[in-house]
Every structure is written in C-alpha cells, then in structure tokens.
C-alpha cells in the first residue's frame, strides 16, 4: 500500500519559515490528491492545503492563505508544504494524506474523511 512519511518539522520562531516534505513509497503520488492537515493539542484535525493529482489545482485554509504553498517535486515522489510568516497558532502536528484521484483533474477537498492514506505526522512548533 501507499506509505507516506512526513519530515521537516521542528522549532521555528514566529515570522520564520519552514518547509515540510511528504515522501511516498509504493505508488506514484502523481495519481493521488495530496492534502496537508494539522492537529493541535485539544483541537480537531483541520485541513491546511491540498493539491490535485493532475490538475495542479490547490486549496488553502483561510488561516494559511498567502503564507503557505503546496507543491509537487519535479521528479521525486514528494509533496512539499512551504510555510512562511509562521504564527504561534500554526503549532501542531502536521500530517500528509493521500487519496487516489478518481477524477484526475478534479479539485481536492480539505476534509480529512476524503483521504484514506496517512503519514505519522511531524511536529511543528512556532515559539520564541
């Protein structure tokens, strides 16, 4: 089955930048819609950003729009989440998720229930 591994998390100061990676094995991510989700302590899992398998269409949560950018690697089986202007409220465990794209050119959705393959998460802490 598809395996996803997140990396790149860590401690960063407010206003700083961090790039997360979601590396896949087993299948090419080109055939999957990929989403980034996060969960802070005591909070529900929320969608951050997603990218369509073929269309390249992206969606962003209002809270990160203009600050985060999701992208696919040129050749490697990896999806990235570039984060800038980080805020303390961005602190959370970040997960990448994937779902096979029934319609390759359809837009992705930021609902956890729409994704069926998940990584283990990587901790992002924004603090001075």
Features of this protein?
seven-stranded mixed β-sheet; 128 residues; four-stranded antiparallel β-sheet; 11 strands; mainly beta
Describe the structure.
It is built from no helices and eleven strands. The strands form two sheets. Strands 2, 4, 5, 6, 9, 10 and 11 form a seven-stranded mixed β-sheet that branches. Strands 1-3-8-7 form a four-stranded antiparallel β-sheet, with no helix packed on it. A hairpin with a 5-residue loop joins strand 7 (68-72) and strand 8 (78-83). It has strands at 3-7, 10-12, 18-25, 32-39, 46-51, 58-60, 68-72, 78-83, 92-100, 117-118, 122-126. It is an all-beta fold.
Anisotropy-based shape: globular
Beta-strand share of residues: over 45%
Q: Which series of helices and strands comes N to C?
A: EEEEEEEEEEE
The beta-strand count equals: 11
> Could you tell me the mean pLDDT?
93
Sheet of most strands:
7 strands, mixed
Structural category is mainly beta
Helix content: under 10%
Q: Give the N-to-C terminal Cα separation.
A: 40 Å
Q: What does the radius of gyration come to? A: 14 Å
**Helix run count:** 0
Strands, helices and their partners?
Elements: E1 3-7, E2 10-12, E3 18-25, E4 32-39, E5 46-51, E6 58-60, E7 68-72, E8 78-83, E9 92-100, E10 117-118, E11 122-126
Parallel strand pairs: 2-11
Antiparallel strand pairs: 1-3, 3-8, 4-5, 4-9, 5-6, 7-8, 9-10, 9-11
